[in-house]
């Protein structure tokens, strides 16, 4: 079994309390998996929005080379995550 300790600080009374959680190996693995999936989704959305913004900027500046490169990168990002 894995034991995780969480410290809570109550700002109003400036007291610190300690809470101890005991997790099974399976629960620990599940939490790690959820965290990894969450981080992957955040990175994917960040990259997607950044590419969309850059593509729009390239279109506004009428820069066809940059637009084509960023469009390929965007399509590759979509292919990887489907």
TrEMBL record:
Annotated IDEAL domain residues: 38-74
Pfam families with a match to the protein in the record: IDEAL
Domain of life: Bacteria
Residue stretches spanning the membrane: none
Name used for this protein in its record: IDEAL domain-containing protein
Organism: Litchfieldia salsa
Taxonomic lineage from the root: Bacteria, Bacillati, Bacillota, Bacilli, Bacillales
